Amino acid sequence: NAGVTQTPKFQVLKTGQSMTLQCAQDMNHEYMSWYRQDPGMGLRLIHYSVGAGITDQGEVPNGYNVSRSTTEDFPLRLLSAAPSQTSVYFCASSYSLGGYGYTFGSGTRLTVV
Amino acid sequence: DQQVKQNSPSLSVQEGRISILNCDYTNSMFDYFLWYKKYPAEGPTFLISISSIKDKNEDGRFTVFLNKSAKHLSLHIVPSQPGDSAVYFCAASGRAGGTSYGKLTFGQGTILTVHP
């Protein structure tokens, strides 16, 4: 049971480049989310999905796209990378909401130069 | 506007003593409160949660207290162990059916150091 798997673990992009951060879970969880962590700011929600085909915006969605074609996968696309998107990105999944904690992946550290 | 705040950036305690981590929130629509622990280069790990209809929830060495009137929650770790040294985040989400249900709002985190 791998849990939540994120790839790559590290990435350096040039300003203006695009890329996709991959996230996969093998726990058959319906709910998946993407967060970014910046120093002194905790984690902030980027995008959110309650099931295949259904996504919603979080607190900081600008510059990012998501899609959810399967239960297992929830990729995050950076359309045109900017230095402000330098951050650590975490994907998370849960079988239910409310007080049931999300399971987080180990993160992708992205640097945009 | 920071809806969930952890005002202590760091806390240092002696092994075996109690660690108390605090968290304040401003949004009265929050219905669930969660605590996560994070080690460097790893993702956050869920520790314990509490619903707004309760004022206490306990799981082993970890107890979370909720004071709704003060919009304040705390995590107690007793006894503290060196392996508890990590960053602790509190988080909140809205009630079922609401627009923020399942969307976690995190505090800034508190670095806990437990000395042997």
Describe this structure in words.
Chain A is mainly β and 113 residues long. Chain A has no helices and eleven strands. Chain A is globular. In chain B, strands 2, 4, 5, 9, 10 and 11 form a six-stranded mixed sheet that branches. Chain B is globular, with a radius of gyration of 14 Å. At the A-B interface, strand 4, strand 5, strand 9 and strand 10 of A face strand 4, strand 5, strand 9 and strand 10 of B.
Q: Please indicate the percent range of residues of chain B in DSSP E strands (runs of 2 or more).
A: over 45%
Number of helices of chain B: 0
Number of helices of chain A: 0
Overall mean pLDDT of chain A stands at 94
Termini separation of chain A: 36 Å
First-residue to last-residue Cα separation of chain B = 38 Å
Uncertain spans of chain B: none
Tag the structure with descriptive keywords.
heterodimer; A: 113 residues; mainly beta; B: 116 residues; six-stranded mixed β-sheet; five-stranded antiparallel β-sheet; 54% strand; globular
